[in-house]
Design a protein that fits this description.
Length: about 650
């Protein structure tokens, strides 16, 4: 019996998989659908560098081999066909993990991936909703799922079927057609938002494939007709603590002047209910617990506009001050992996979860309650007990050097949110041209927030101001890498500016060190510096609920320091970490000195543990005992440093 025109139909869940047969010819048979999908998907890919990526239904490794070029932190491919995986193993790196599994129960840890790719997979799934639940289980908050498949409407109208030819036989694979509305609803109902949905038709690049198959008229008939869809989804980030209803506890702070802004104090009482400031004024004589802050001053919690929390336990990595400065950040990034590989490999053995907690504690020590983390979000950030608030609502790209799809990331950022990018981070000609390049690419407007901007000339600053863009300065990081920062006049001429500490890899210490440098070395006005870490930072990052201020109905973020006879701005400009004695974040006492700890109502002392940092003792609402143990397990006992300061666990209650 001849099989020349015979078609076999395989059940999608049969033990004898048609995909094993397809593996024999998958890479040799040209497919216009795959060509169109690759052409349209690549610009939609989020940043892959340094991320954890999963390809579900990876087949013979078509996407895996491409994703490897972008430098992911980890890459895993899953497929139900062992024959497909054998082919994939022949073309991907040894470090790329391959697993045989169905899509209904993926062998992947919770909250472990930044990106899931599902290319031409959904049509074969028996249970779309189980797959959506698996995706929300696996993808970290803020992470993405990228789905592509034949366009269901066109496929139904044109009676498109999934088939391939092998040994003269056409093999058809049954599919389960679903509307785009059904697919979108399945994911939206399980914690995802649609970032992008496109429905592209075949184009001129696909025409030769049709012609070689003798189907030129089919191509012409499909001009302008959606051939596939590509759906980009983002997992929602749970609302921050200050988005939640007020909790059932109340606290009154009495006896301390309250900063109304950089230049004035107010005598009065702050009443905190749940995570908000319910009132500022006279002591209400209510039943609320009381914290007497006589001999102290109350300032708003600070905003660190730029950090990389996952480098919390890294030391400075770079050249000595006697060596020639780097020309740009790319030169530095490549060199440290060669020169400091042993240090990097040791720190990387510490779990990222531990790093981000120490990154948060590093900020808390200097009075920071809100951090803008310029990297993929980590699941720890959504925990109510995480020490600092992490900004989540913004778009970002790393830099022009390390980002291939900046246009798409910029376009996909909602118009009301900032778009943050490293730029002008160097002293060579390319660095000095970057702001003009961004403007030429139409990526410079009131949403754009440049980080570093060391290469900003007066002309570039004028352009920055004209476009309404903003700058986040990290002066000691620039000094460490390039032996220079912007001048007083340059900083002062930027109309929208905030301050960040950058990571411990390049910074002098913490945000207070940046403040001190701007005050003593740059000579910037203390009022301007105060705004750079409070109200101006909040405006640039589009923060709501009174973050960066002390105001009624605003979020209850405050710090307390010993009283001095100076303005709030002058007080802040001279602070060091040992002088931050109380941090309240979202109404919770997050850190307290021993002196303030003794004044705390007993109900506010629970779950606090004691650390010693460079001789200063502080109580933290954090699992510092286990954090110290995890870090010292890799670094060695007594070798734990945060911002260059030695840390020692004392006890817990």
């Amino acid at each position: 019996m001849s099989h020349q025109n015979e078609t076999l139909i395989y059940p999608s869940e049969s033990g004898s998989s048609p995909f094993d047969l397809w593996a024999q010819v998958y890479d040799s048979q040209l497919n216009p659908f795959l060509m169109l999908e690759e052409r349209e998907t690549i610009p939609m890919l989020p940043s892959v560098a340094g991320c954890d990526v999963l390809d579900v239904g990876c087949g013979t490794g078509r996407w895996l081999s491409r994703l490897e070029r972008y430098g992911p932190a980890s890459l895993c491919g899953i497929d139900g066909s062992p024959a497909m995986l054998i082919r994939a193993r022949q073309k991907v790196n040894k470090t790329t993990l391959l697993c045989q599994s169905s899509s209904s129960k993926l062998p992947i840890d919770d909250s472990s991936k930044d990106l899931i790719l599902a290319s031409f997979v959904l049509s074969y799934l028996d249970d779309l909703y189980t797959f959506a639940e698996e995706c929300v289980r696996i993808v970290r908050p803020g992470g993405c799922v990228l789905i592509s498949d034949m366009h269901p409407t066109t496929a139904a109208k044109r009676d498109w079927r999934r088939s391939f030819r092998v040994d003269g036989m056409e093999i058809e694979i049954p599919t389960r057609p679903r509307t785009l509305q059904e697919i979108v609803s399945a994911f939206q109902g399980r914690g995802f938002d649609v970032q992008t949905l496109i429905e592209p038709p075949f184009g001129l690049p696909e025409r030769p494939l049709f012609e070689s198959a003798g189907k030129r008229f089919d191509y012409e008939d499909l001009i302008g007709v959606p051939a596939i869809y590509i759906l980009k989804l983002q997992r929602r980030v749970p609302p921050s603590t200050f988005d939640l209803p007020w909790k059932d506890h109340a606290l009154q702070l009495i006896g301390a002047p309250i900063a109304l802004g950089p230049g004035a104090w107010l005598e009065g009482t702050i009443r905190i209910e749940g995570d908000r400031i319910s009132s500022i004024g006279e002591n209400e004589g209510s039943s609320a617990a009381i914290l007497d802050l006589s001999d102290y001053l109350i300032l708003p919690g600070l905003i660190n506009a730029h950090d990389h929390l996952e480098f919390g336990l890294f030391p400075n990595l770079g050249r000595s001050s006697s060596s020639a400065p780097y020309q740009n950040s790319s030169e530095w990034a490549h060199e440290i992996h060669r020169v400091h590989s042993a240090v990097i490999e040791q720190r990387q053995r510490i779990p990222k979860t531990i790093h981000v907690w120490w990154g948060a504690i590093r900020n808390l020590l200097c009075g920071v309650t809100t951090v803008c983390h310029h990297n993929p979000l980590h699941p720890e950030f959504e925990l109510s007990e995480f020490p600092v608030r992490v900004v989540t609502q913004f778009g970002w790209a790393h830099s022009l050097e390390f980002e291939s799809h900046i246009h798409d990331k910029f376009r996909n950022t909602p118009l009301e949110l900032p778009f943050i990018i490293h730029a002008g981070e160097g002293i060579d000609a390319e660095s000095f041209q970057e702001i003009f390049q961004l403007d030429h690419m139409h990526l410079l407007d009131e949403r754009t927030v440049l980080v570093h901007g060391l290469a900003l000339t007066p002309e570039a600053i004028s352009l920055l101001n004209q476009r309404g863009a903003a700058l986040i300065a990290c002066p000691t990081s620039n000094l460490f890498l390039f032996s220079r920062t912007l001048s007083h006049d340059q900083f002062a001429s930027v109309q929208r500016i905030a301050l960040g500490s950058d990571s411990p890899i390049t910074a002098a210490g913490d945000l207070l060190d940046e403040i001190h440098y701007m005050s003593t070395e740059v000579g910037l006005d203390s009022n301007a510096i105060y705004k750079m870490v409070t109200s101006s930072a909040a405006e640039i990052l589009d923060l709501e609920f009174g973050v960066g201020q002390i105001k009624e109905s605003g979020v209850a973020d405050i710090i307390a320091v010993r009283a001095v006879n100076k303005t709030p701005a002058a007080t802040l400009s001279e602070l060091n970490f040992a002088e931050i004695e109380l941090v309240v974040r979202s109404g919770q006492v997050a850190m307290a000195s021993p002196a303030i700890y003794e004044r705390l109502p007993h109900s506010f002392r629970t779950n606090m543990q004691l650390l010693e940092i460079a001789g200063s003792r502080r109580w933290f609402r954090a699992p510092v005992k286990s954090l110290v143990a995890e870090a010292e397990n890799i670094l060695g006992k007594g070798n734990l440093l945060v911002s260059g300061r030695r840390v020692r666990y004392l006890n817990a209650i």
